[in-house]
Amino acid sequence: MAKQSFKLMVNSSEYEVFTEPNRPLLDVVREDLGLTGSKEGCGTGDCGACTMLLDGAPVTSCLVLVGEAENRDIITVEGIAKNGQLHPVQAAFVEFGALQCGFCIPGMIVSSVALLDRNPHPTEEEIRYGIAGNLCRCTGYTKIVEAIQAASSRM
Amino acid sequence: MYRFEYYRPTSVAEAVSLLREKGEGGKILAGGTDLIPQMKERGRHPKYIVSLSLVNELRGISEDGGGLKIGAGTLMAHVADNHVVKERFNVLAQGAELIGSFQTMNLATVGGNVCNAAPSADAVPAFIVMDAEVTITGPDGSRTMPLWQVFEGPGRTALKSDEILTSVSIPTPASRSAGIYIRHCPRKELDIAIAGVGSYIGLDDNGSINHARVCLCAVAPVPLRATKTEEFLVGKKPSEEVYEQAGQIAAEEARPITDMRGSAEFRRVLVKVLTIRTLNQAVDKIGLKTTR
After folding, report:
1. What range defines the domain where residue B33 resides?
2. pTM (2 decimals)?
3. I need a labelling partner for B142 at 20 to 30 A (CA). Which of A27, A100, A148, B222 fits?
4. Do B31 and B86 share a domain, yes or no?
5. What value of ipTM does the predicted structure carry?
6. Boundary residue ending a domain (B105, B137, B170)
């Protein structure tokens, strides 16, 4: 399969990759750009571990072919902290102990940030609905929800 | 994933001309939320893919007189969030919101949900009961048809291999009318309906039903118009007994199978219950609208 050139804008930096068009964005970001924060949990858009923001909207990057993401604004978990400062959501996750194995967390952080951007003061129900696309096998979600509530009250 | 040829046309005309030129064995890529999992895990290996990501003319929601026109490339998230949809075509938002999770809704398109033609497609019954019509475009021109006629079987539509769905149009709803869609599935999100019912009711000045459209989801090879139920409802005054009888007729019209999500018997029970609930809620909603 012939490789093609794709321009990707990731975390405000422009990259050019030369690769086969049948590769998902998740794979290209992890393997070619070395941004391994986003994880593959299922590969079929069902777990949310690969969540990235595409023009500000959370999407499962395992379903996005690299060419489909060209010329769009991509933000990965690596782009959430600014100038070495944790985002309030990240700080709250640490403070509240909202992670155990950590595998779902990058996607969870990205979804939570997008949720609070959309809805700065969500109810508990809105929070749970907002992160419904991010599955966690360890925590039972309680501390994740508390961390998001705390972050929202501080923002 | 297997290899394929990858095209990104920038217009509908270019897309359909590519489909004709390349022939059989290709697939359209819109959001990819059905196609990519099928390619990764379910043995779907198209020779070529025509991506619609650069065909901007397929996106957008606009008012058309009192009706609505939605480009087939419009995201489910945008349908669910749209102010006009929520205000006057609310059942469409109810259906769109059920598609997967936020991440799914930010990729999935209206056209994709229709053309993937799953019997359990959650956005479809809402569009059907709002009397949606689709525009299908090929290299030789465009044609329109009622949405409910597009479905020919699980995963099969009336579209020819060189045609794409370009838009969905919904006519002006009747002045005293409302639509409701409810599905039943074990999880709240990210799940496939065991059964779903969409109902649209219009009432005349005497409070009798003058418009009734009921569409059943996941209980037949296609999204199923429950036409006998509809005929029963027209002319009746809404009441618990009418809903009960309508639910019974709908359960009998359903043609469910038994599979790992549920038995046929269970699905018939669900159809009855969901028909009663959606009719009840639709009539209540009309009442709420008119007392404001």
Report:
1. 5-51
2. 0.95
3. B222
4. no
5. 0.96
6. B170
Asked if A42 is an interface residue toward chain B (Cβ–Cβ < 8 A), one would say no
* Structural domains in chain B (count): 3
Q: Specify whether B218 is located in the same domain as B166.
A: no
Cβ distance A114 to A73 under 8 Å? no
8 Å CB contact between B250 and B272: yes
* CATH architecture, domain A88-154: Orthogonal Bundle (1.10)
**Per-position DSSP letters for A48-103, written without gaps between them:** -TTEEEETTEEEEGGGSBGGGGTTSEEE-GGGTSBTTBPPHHHHHHHHHT--SS-T
Q: Can you name the residues that pair with A92 across neighbouring β-strands?
A: none
Residue B292 clears pLDDT 60, i.e. is over it? no
CA angle B140, B143, B147 (to 5 degrees): 145
Distance CA B58, CA B112 (A): 12
Q: Give the pLDDT mean for B224-228.
A: 97
CB contact under 8 A, B190 and A21: no
Strand partners of residue B138: B141
Q: Which residues of B touch A66 (CB under 8 A)?
A: none
Same domain, B106 and B210: no
Per CB distance under 8 Å, which residues of B are interface residues toward A?
Answer: 1-4, 6, 8, 29, 31-33, 36-37, 40-41, 51, 53, 77, 100-104, 106-107, 188-190
For residues B155 and B84, state if they share a domain. Answer: yes
In this structure, chain B runs to a length of 292
CATH code of the domain covering residue B182:
3.30.390.50
Tokens, residue A34: 């070395």
Q: What per-residue confidence (pLDDT) applies to B291?
A: 60
Question: Kind of pairing, strands B67-71 and B224-225?
Answer: unpaired
Provide the 8-state DSSP code for B234. T
Q: Tell me phi and psi for residue B117, to 5 degrees.
A: 55, 45
Contact B51 A51 (CB under 8 A): no
Q: Give the contacts of A113 (CB within 8 A, at least 6 positions apart).
A: A53, A80, A87, A89
Tell me the per-residue pLDDT of B64-87, one tens digit each, with 9 for 90 and over: 999 999 999 999 999 999 999 999
pLDDT at A96: 98
Shared domain for B39 and B109, answered yes or no, is no
The architecture (CATH level 2) of A4-79 comes to Roll (3.10)
Whether A63 and chain B come into contact, CB under 8 Å, resolves to: yes
CB contact under 8 A, B101 and A22: no
Q: How many whole angstroms separate alpha carbon B218 and alpha carbon B224?
A: 9
**In chain A, whose CA is at the least distance from the CA of B45?**
A22
